[in-house]
Amino acid sequence: MARTILGVWQAEGEVVRVLDGDTLECDLDLGWNTWRRVKVRILNINAPETTTAPGIASSEHLSNLLPENSRIIVTSHELDVYGRTLGTVRFAETASPNFGADVGARMIADGFASSRDE
């Protein structure tokens, strides 16, 4: 698999929508009043395809964990072969008991995704 190497970067952002059980669209705050809408593929997890009942359940679970406008922190090293940001997503809602927790690890722990070594 060919990948574009960008170097490590981190940005806070807001969820726009969940695309499936391991991919979301978000607006990232790049600083200086600059925002960028990107698709983020959650690193090291694999969710079932949305054409299956488990895939629909996985997508719904991620939507419940990260509803629209949820604050997140994305840490990425690269783009995947489809041009999506490939990275770790963490909860950034400071009032949440999940603050700082890894969303991908939560999806695996909750049984809605499997571990995938990228």
> In the CATH hierarchy, what is the architecture at level 2?
Beta Barrel
Biggest sheet character: 5 strands, mixed, barrel
CATH structural class: Mainly Beta
Helix/strand structural class: alpha+beta
Compute the separation of the termini in Å.
10 Å
Number of helices: 2
The residue ranges in which pLDDT falls below 50 over 5 or more consecutive positions are: none
Count of beta strands:
7
How much is the average pLDDT?
A: 91
What general outline do the C-alpha atoms trace?
A: globular
What does this structure look like?
This protein is α+β, with helices and mostly antiparallel strands. It has a single domain, classed as OB fold (Dihydrolipoamide Acetyltransferase, E2P). It is built from two helices and seven strands. The strands form two sheets. Strands 1-2-3-6-5 form a five-stranded mixed β-barrel. Strands 4-7 form a two-stranded antiparallel sheet. The protein is globular. The relative contact order is 0.25. The model has no long low-confidence stretch (mean pLDDT 91).
Entry summary:
The chain is 17% helix and 47% strand. It is of the alpha+beta class. The strands form two sheets. It has a five-stranded mixed beta barrel. It has a two-stranded antiparallel sheet with strand order 4-7.
Give a quick set of tags describing it.
118 residues; alpha+beta; OB fold (Dihydrolipoamide Acetyltransferase, E2P); two-stranded antiparallel ribbon; 2 helices; 7 strands
Outline the fold blueprint.
Blueprint: E1 4-20, E2 23-31, E3 34-42, E4 45-46, H1 53-65, E5 71-79, E6 85-91, H2 103-109, E7 114-115
Parallel strand pairs: 3-6
Antiparallel strand pairs: 1-2, 1-5, 2-3, 4-7, 5-6
